[in-house]
Design brief:
Layout lengths: L3 H6 E3 L5 E3 L23 H13 L5 H9 L3 H12 L19 H34 L4 H7 L1
Antiparallel strand pairs: 1-2
Protein backbone atom coordinates (compact mmCIF):
# COMPACT_ATOMS: atom_id res chain seq x y z
CA UNK A 1 0.00 0.00 0.00
CA UNK A 2 1.48 3.34 -0.87
CA UNK A 3 1.43 6.40 1.29
CA UNK A 4 -0.21 9.48 -0.27
CA UNK A 5 1.52 11.88 2.07
CA UNK A 6 5.02 10.68 1.29
CA UNK A 7 4.15 10.47 -2.42
CA UNK A 8 3.09 14.10 -2.48
CA UNK A 9 6.41 15.18 -1.00
CA UNK A 10 8.45 13.32 -3.58
CA UNK A 11 9.07 14.35 -7.13
CA UNK A 12 10.98 12.50 -9.80
CA UNK A 13 13.19 14.57 -12.05
CA UNK A 14 14.18 13.69 -15.61
CA UNK A 15 17.04 11.42 -14.54
CA UNK A 16 14.67 9.39 -12.36
CA UNK A 17 16.11 10.55 -9.04
CA UNK A 18 13.52 11.18 -6.39
CA UNK A 19 13.84 14.31 -4.29
CA UNK A 20 11.73 15.92 -1.63
CA UNK A 21 9.75 19.03 -2.51
CA UNK A 22 9.67 21.67 0.14
CA UNK A 23 6.39 23.54 0.04
CA UNK A 24 6.89 26.95 1.59
CA UNK A 25 4.08 27.71 4.00
CA UNK A 26 3.64 30.81 6.02
CA UNK A 27 3.25 30.05 9.69
CA UNK A 28 1.37 33.27 10.39
CA UNK A 29 -0.92 34.72 7.74
CA UNK A 30 -0.67 38.47 7.22
CA UNK A 31 -3.30 39.97 9.53
CA UNK A 32 -3.14 43.40 7.92
CA UNK A 33 -6.28 44.36 6.03
CA UNK A 34 -5.66 46.37 2.91
CA UNK A 35 -7.38 49.77 2.89
CA UNK A 36 -10.33 50.14 0.59
CA UNK A 37 -9.80 52.41 -2.40
CA UNK A 38 -11.45 55.81 -2.11
CA UNK A 39 -13.15 57.60 -4.96
CA UNK A 40 -11.11 60.53 -6.17
CA UNK A 41 -12.68 63.97 -6.04
CA UNK A 42 -11.46 66.81 -8.20
CA UNK A 43 -11.99 70.50 -7.44
CA UNK A 44 -13.75 72.77 -9.88
CA UNK A 45 -10.58 74.77 -10.42
CA UNK A 46 -8.62 71.62 -11.26
CA UNK A 47 -11.26 70.46 -13.73
CA UNK A 48 -11.34 73.81 -15.54
CA UNK A 49 -7.56 74.07 -15.63
CA UNK A 50 -7.19 70.50 -16.85
CA UNK A 51 -9.79 70.99 -19.61
CA UNK A 52 -7.93 74.11 -20.80
CA UNK A 53 -4.66 72.20 -20.81
CA UNK A 54 -6.31 69.22 -22.55
CA UNK A 55 -7.86 71.40 -25.26
CA UNK A 56 -4.49 73.13 -25.82
CA UNK A 57 -2.89 69.82 -26.88
CA UNK A 58 -2.39 69.76 -30.66
CA UNK A 59 0.24 67.10 -31.32
CA UNK A 60 -0.84 63.48 -31.97
CA UNK A 61 -0.65 61.48 -28.77
CA UNK A 62 -0.23 64.55 -26.61
CA UNK A 63 -3.71 64.28 -25.11
CA UNK A 64 -3.21 60.62 -24.22
CA UNK A 65 0.14 61.41 -22.62
CA UNK A 66 -1.49 64.15 -20.53
CA UNK A 67 -4.22 61.76 -19.40
CA UNK A 68 -1.66 59.12 -18.44
CA UNK A 69 0.52 61.65 -16.63
CA UNK A 70 -2.39 62.86 -14.49
CA UNK A 71 -3.99 59.40 -14.17
CA UNK A 72 -7.31 60.57 -15.55
CA UNK A 73 -9.72 58.55 -17.69
CA UNK A 74 -10.99 59.95 -20.98
CA UNK A 75 -14.56 59.47 -19.75
CA UNK A 76 -13.87 62.17 -17.12
CA UNK A 77 -13.08 64.61 -19.92
CA UNK A 78 -16.41 63.98 -21.63
CA UNK A 79 -18.29 64.33 -18.34
CA UNK A 80 -16.45 67.50 -17.33
CA UNK A 81 -17.08 69.09 -20.76
CA UNK A 82 -20.78 68.30 -20.47
CA UNK A 83 -20.87 69.80 -16.97
CA UNK A 84 -19.00 72.88 -18.15
CA UNK A 85 -21.51 73.41 -20.97
CA UNK A 86 -24.37 73.27 -18.46
CA UNK A 87 -22.33 75.44 -16.07
CA UNK A 88 -22.79 72.69 -13.53
CA UNK A 89 -19.19 71.79 -12.85
CA UNK A 90 -18.99 70.15 -9.42
CA UNK A 91 -18.73 72.80 -6.74
CA UNK A 92 -20.25 75.66 -8.75
CA UNK A 93 -23.79 74.66 -7.81
CA UNK A 94 -24.69 72.42 -4.96
CA UNK A 95 -27.23 69.78 -5.77
CA UNK A 96 -28.86 67.97 -2.93
CA UNK A 97 -28.60 64.22 -3.14
CA UNK A 98 -31.47 61.91 -2.33
CA UNK A 99 -35.17 62.07 -3.08
CA UNK A 100 -36.44 65.38 -4.43
CA UNK A 101 -38.54 67.50 -2.12
CA UNK A 102 -42.14 68.01 -3.14
CA UNK A 103 -42.87 71.76 -3.13
CA UNK A 104 -46.55 71.10 -2.40
CA UNK A 105 -45.81 68.86 0.57
CA UNK A 106 -46.13 71.64 3.17
CA UNK A 107 -49.48 72.72 1.77
CA UNK A 108 -50.61 69.10 1.63
CA UNK A 109 -49.73 68.52 5.28
CA UNK A 110 -51.61 71.67 6.27
CA UNK A 111 -54.70 70.54 4.37
CA UNK A 112 -54.51 67.05 5.88
CA UNK A 113 -54.45 68.54 9.40
CA UNK A 114 -57.41 70.76 8.59
CA UNK A 115 -59.25 67.79 7.10
CA UNK A 116 -58.67 65.77 10.29
CA UNK A 117 -59.87 68.68 12.45
CA UNK A 118 -63.05 69.02 10.39
CA UNK A 119 -63.72 65.28 10.55
CA UNK A 120 -63.49 65.40 14.35
CA UNK A 121 -65.84 68.39 14.44
CA UNK A 122 -68.32 66.56 12.18
CA UNK A 123 -68.20 63.50 14.45
CA UNK A 124 -68.97 65.65 17.49
CA UNK A 125 -71.83 67.37 15.66
CA UNK A 126 -73.34 64.01 14.69
CA UNK A 127 -73.15 62.87 18.35
CA UNK A 128 -74.96 66.02 19.48
CA UNK A 129 -77.69 65.54 16.86
CA UNK A 130 -78.10 61.89 17.94
CA UNK A 131 -78.43 63.00 21.57
CA UNK A 132 -81.02 65.63 20.61
CA UNK A 133 -83.08 63.02 18.75
CA UNK A 134 -83.05 60.70 21.78
CA UNK A 135 -84.04 63.53 24.14
CA UNK A 136 -86.82 64.48 21.75
CA UNK A 137 -88.15 60.91 21.75
CA UNK A 138 -87.97 60.68 25.56
CA UNK A 139 -89.89 63.92 26.02
CA UNK A 140 -92.48 62.74 23.55
CA UNK A 141 -91.79 65.34 20.95
CA UNK A 142 -92.33 63.57 17.66
CA UNK A 143 -91.03 64.42 14.30
CA UNK A 144 -94.44 65.92 13.44
CA UNK A 145 -94.31 68.49 16.24
CA UNK A 146 -90.71 69.52 15.50
CA UNK A 147 -91.64 69.99 11.81
CA UNK A 148 -94.59 72.24 12.73
CA UNK A 149 -92.37 74.54 14.74
CA UNK A 150 -90.26 75.28 11.75
Amino acid sequence: MYNLVSRAKEKTNVSGIKRDIKIPRSKDPNPEVLPRAKRRQFSTAFKKHFLEEYNACTEPGEKGALLRKEGIYSSYIATWKRQLERDNLAGSTSTKRGPKENPQREEMEKLEKENERLRERLRQSELIIEAQKKISQILGLGADESDKKR
